[in-house]
Amino acid sequence: MTEKIIIAVPSKGRLMEQTADMFISAGLPIERSGHERGYFGQLSEFDDVEVRFLSASEIARNLDSGTVHIGITGEDLLRETIPDCDEKIAIEKRLGIGPADVVVAVPESWLDVATMADLEEVSLEFRRKNKRRLRVATKYVNLTRQYFALKGVTGYQTIESLGATEGAPAAGTAEIIVDITSTGSTLRANNLKILDDGIILKSQAVLATAKNPGLTPEQSNVLRSVVDRLRG
Predict the structure, then answer these.
(1) Tens digit of pLDDT for each residue in 91-141?
(2) Same domain assignment for residues 128 and 196
(3) CA-CA distances (angstroms) from residue 98 to 5, 171, 180, 201?
(4) Which structural domain range is residue 174 located in?
(5) Which of 50, 92, 138, 166 could bond 207 through an S-S bridge, CB–CB 3.0 to 4.6 Å?
(6) Strands 30-32 and 192-203: what pairing?
(7) Domain co-membership, 61 together with 93
(8) Which residues, in sequence order, are CB contacts of 26 under 8 Å at separation 6+?
(9) pTM of the predicted model, to two decimals?
(10) Residues 141, 142, 146, 151: what is their CA dihedral angle, to the nearest 10 degrees?
């Protein structure tokens, strides 16, 4: 059992502003505790609710660990961070904020590669010629492995990207990328194309709850009241 219901919201940027507006529209304005740039807040209507301002990736990790009961973060981060996401997390509402796709992209010069099946064929030939596997640069290692397995692509290795993933092929550190894109313009600027069946996930910000939050019945009722109002 926990002392308070913990709501985690983005700590910066446009997503933080849009989240704050959503709470106001639901009649649940967030009041910062202490300094206006502090990392804690509350909802005046509910004494047993605490608001924490965290990064989007921290929100996903804390929903996974159960230290946060309600969170607003990207669906891509939830599914990358929590392999058994559907078992542990309930997506209460897709918010229409920050839409972006997690995609598989290859060099535009690969004229004969349009699908994941083509990619498997290329990977076999690439390994014969180069004595190594195709390299896939990505921040989404788990989503990549799951999707490539689903599509029967085996001849690759993942290279975890810490910077601008779209620049990896030009830099020679990878042949393929899996990255997130909103318009595709950055990919095109780097001479990359998305495979015809290369959309792994159509992501956006979501309102999510932990399925086993360890709350009292009274707290569970409060949590459901907050979520219902945020769902509108």
Answers:
(1) 999 999 989 999 999 999 999 999 999 999 999 999 999 999 999 999 999
(2) yes
(3) 26, 28, 11, 13
(4) 100-203
(5) 92
(6) unpaired
(7) yes
(8) 229, 230, 232
(9) 0.90
(10) -10
